[in-house]
């Protein structure tokens, strides 16, 4: 399952920067870019199905709507999510294309400047996470463009199977807002004004899952929250999560999580 981070998809001024110790994130995606820099130690990242093991001083740049995750982290990692508007000229170069490799081979000059502007003091306390301050606009753009310039020196850009980011965002938003109802791909396509066969191809090319699977992922994730945070009967949770029967709920929950709802609650 992956998570659509709507808070990192809406708006032209997205900026969220944190320093983590032993960072781990389940598969997720969003409209904004994401830059991951290893301050110390190592981290394993998966981007669009490709695995990277990053060590101190190394970084990757994740393009909009690429599914990515982090695990096996041992050390300190700086992660910044930022809107494409901060690097608009770079975004134009990637229009309808995406890199075959997410790694950025930073020059010493770029690395030093990026660390000075974006990271600075990354001392962590016992919480193992620190929210970083947003630099002034010109310094922010300068440091990001410096990284993007180094990235483009070695990048191989391939045609993106789906470059319609707005439609992809509209699809994910529709599912997020309606998964508890009895929704269908055809109904969603009609609501968005597209042919259902075209929408189906978007799922295959961009998300690598079908509509039904995505809806069930959202339903099961919501059901898990209800199972752990409420005392509602399992049958009520099934209905509140969008399932039409307790039997279907049990079957789909088992397929998605590897356990039955009642066992998950325990």
Short description:
This protein has helices spanning 88-93, 108-119, 137-154, 165-178, 185-192, 196-207, 211-229, 234-240, 246-257, 261-265; strands spanning 3-4, 15-21, 25-29, 33-47, 50-55, 59-62, 68-82, 97-99, 103-104, 129-131, 157-159. With 266 residues, the chain is an alpha+beta fold. Strand 4 (33-47) and strand 5 (50-55) form a beta hairpin.
Description:
The chain is globular. The model has no long low-confidence stretch (mean pLDDT 92). Helix 2 (108-119) runs antiparallel to helix 3 (137-154). By secondary structure, it is an alpha+beta fold. Strand 4 and strand 5 (50-55) form a beta hairpin. The protein folds into 2 domains: 3-159, Sandwich (Jelly Rolls); 165-265, Orthogonal Bundle (Arc Repressor Mutant, subunit A), CATH 1.10.10. 42% of the residues lie in helices and 24% in strands.
What is the average of the pLDDT values?
A: 92
| CATH H-level superfamily title of the largest domain | Regulatory protein AraC
Largest sheet: 9 strands, mixed
The rough form would be described as: globular
Number of strands: 11
Which keywords apply here?
two-stranded antiparallel ribbon; Jelly Rolls; single chain; globular; 10 helices; 2 domains; nine-stranded mixed beta sheet; alpha+beta; Arc Repressor Mutant, subunit A; 266 residues
Write the layout of secondary structure elements.
Elements: E1 3-4, E2 15-21, E3 25-29, E4 33-47, E5 50-55, E6 59-62, E7 68-82, H1 88-93, E8 97-99, E9 103-104, H2 108-119, E10 129-131, H3 137-154, E11 157-159, H4 165-178, H5 185-192, H6 196-207, H7 211-229, H8 234-240, H9 246-257, H10 261-265
Parallel strand pairs: 1-3
Antiparallel strand pairs: 2-7, 2-10, 3-7, 4-5, 4-6, 4-7, 6-9, 8-11
């Amino acid at each position: 399952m992956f998570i659509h981070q709507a808070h990192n998809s809406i708006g032209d001024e997205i900026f969220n920067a944190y320093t983590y110790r032993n960072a781990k994130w389940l598969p997720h995606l969003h409209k904004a870019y994401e830059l991951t820099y290893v301050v110390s130690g190592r981290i394993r990242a998966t981007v669009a199905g490709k695995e990277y093991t990053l060590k101190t001083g190394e970084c990757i740049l994740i393009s909009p709507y690429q599914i990515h995750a982090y695990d096996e982290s041992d050390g300190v990692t700086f992660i910044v999510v930022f809107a494409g508007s901060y690097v608009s000229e770079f975004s134009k170069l990637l229009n309808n294309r995406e890199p075959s490799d997410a790694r950025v081979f930073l020059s010493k000059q770029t690395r030093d400047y990026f660390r000075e502007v974006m990271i600075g003091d990354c001392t962590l306390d016992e919480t193992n996470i620190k929210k970083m301050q947003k630099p002034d606009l010109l310094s922010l753009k300068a440091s990001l463009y410096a990284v993007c310039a180094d990235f483009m020196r070695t990048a191989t850009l391939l045609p993106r199977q789906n470059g319609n980011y707005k439609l992809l965002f509209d699809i994910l938003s529709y599912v997020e807002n309606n998964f508890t109802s009895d929704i269908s791909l055809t109904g969603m396509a009609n609501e968005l004004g597209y042919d259902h066969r075209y929408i189906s191809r978007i799922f295959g090319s961009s998300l690598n899952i079908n509509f039904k699977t995505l809806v069930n992922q959202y339903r099961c994730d919501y059901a898990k929250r209800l199972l752990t945070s409420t005392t509602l009967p399992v049958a009520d949770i099934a209905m509140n999560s969008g399932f039409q029967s307790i039997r279907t709920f049990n079957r789909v929950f088992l397929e998605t999580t590897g356990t039955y709802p009642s066992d998950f609650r325990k």
